[in-house]
Amino acid sequence: MTTLQDTEDASETDLAKHDEDDYVEIKEQMYQDKLASLKRQLQQLQEGTLQEYQKRMKKLDQQYKERLRNADLFLQLETEQVERNYIKEKKAAVKEFDDKKVELKENLIAELEEKKKMIENEKLTMELTGDSMEVKPIMTRKLRRRPNDPVPIPDKRRKPLNYLLTDEQIMEDLRTLNKLKSPKRPGMIALSPSSPEHVPSAPMESPTQRYEARIEDGKLYYDKRWYHKSQAIYLESKDNTKISCVISTVGTNEIWVRKTSDSTKMRIYLGQLQRGAFVIRRRSAA
Fold this sequence. Notes:
The protein is built from four helices and eight strands. It is α+β, with helices and mostly antiparallel strands and 286 residues long. The strands form two sheets. It has a five-stranded antiparallel sheet. The longest helix has 79 residues, at 51-129. This is SDS3 homolog, SIN3A corepressor complex component.
């Protein structure tokens, strides 16, 4: 009995050992197969033929091309925007240049016209006061020079006088003339119309009405009303001429107005507004 049992135990031991050897062999075979597969994949990867590598490379290439396309679109949009801004700025610069050129020309024309009017008013003032702008030569007798007399020094030609006056001087002269033209003065005898010495006199002007006019903070205060730049007005003169204008500039001692009929500009001084030489009325800016 003992011998049979030992034999069975030995057989079971050999069987278990054989099974263990088969397991180790199978495991070794699996390792070798995996190692061979990895080596084969590595070789394909180096050659660029690995399927997984090609799949991922295709995806990366699509992303790369999409990014390039988006960059090109962005560049095109930015270029178009820059070109539009360039054209817009160029047009604005040309328009501003043309406007400044026209404004400069109008201002110079207005200044020259104002100077022309000042000279005409000055000439009229001198004619009324009896002054003359012509310099008459002084009549002198030429005597025979004696041998011992020194050589006469020739007279230098007189320099022309400067008759340009300021606006305040002109207006002061006009006020003096108006006082001299008063119809009645103390100590004077009025001549009757039947008198042979009667001289018809020009109609006398009514006393000048004074207006309150001043400039503060770039606005004109005139006749209890405020006027500002770009405001539509009527400009009335002493000869009842009514002009439709727009205030273009408010200076420190004067304003510039632009006629709506021909866009010419005029300069009006505060003194002229205060004396009533010009009267400003509001109008609707239709």
